[in-house]
Fold:
Amino acid sequence: LGLSAYRRDWDWARAGWFRIAVAFWLWLVVTAALSEWPAAALRDALTWIRFPVFAAALSVWLSRSDIRRQWMLGVCVFGTLVLIGVLFIERAANPEAVRLWGTWSQGSKAGWYMLGIGTPVAMWALQQLHAQPASWAWSAGLALAVVVATIATGEVFVSLLLIFGLGVFVLLAGLLSRRSIALVAVTLAVGVGVLQSNLALWDRFTTQAATRLPWLPSSDYYPGWSGALSVALGNPVTGVGTNQFKPYCESRRAQGQDELGALDRCLDHPHQLYLQVFAEAGLPGLILFVALAAALVMPWTRAYPKAQSPRALEAAGLAIGVM
Structure:
């Protein structure tokens, strides 16, 4: 912000997606002020603007220098390789574990870090595999290692998100070829082999895939989804305030109200971002949030006909990120 003020360069702030983000932020502030817990809601609503500012800053920082982009990619690749190494060491030391934690002990789930850091790395490796066939040994190996390490963490939903996202990326970016199909086949075979080498891990994946995906009524997360929908329908205009889903639930339970239906305990959040926005910012907030997602992707769709071009790859990656 200081650099933009010094240079009088505010072009990034005039982008359509950023203007929608500001409108969404202002709506969050309004709904927080109207919440039953305005102090707590305003604390979270006022600071939400940091997310689009960080996104814009990163975009500006990377778009104006090839060297910066190369450094960013290098850091992501290095970090991913370190994490993969740590996960495989952890798996070797505890082969019967059903979940891996990486360098964070049991304070966090390594699978989510593999998804966040590993996805752009695997996308880059797939692009290199297509653009430079001679690089198949390391590019295919890197993409394979990212997927297998993510599966090895024991995080079912994360693994499905990664595999689905990379599949959509290959299709959108025009990277479908015999090499990529062969890599998919090998990855699936190795992934299944990793799972079957650990019966506890195999049981975890098969059981959770059948019963615990968030949209299944048998899932632990489904009550949060249905509860958020109930809250949203009960407060359709302004919602209950930013990050106030749990306080709202607790207050209604204390009053003996069953507005949240099947939700037998109050979750910190609904575990579904769009439903959370609907519940906490009402229908206007949800419309603005969806418009923000659409505004991020739509300007790039003109690049799709030029498959494999840098802009097409950026567009495909951005689409995956928004989804």
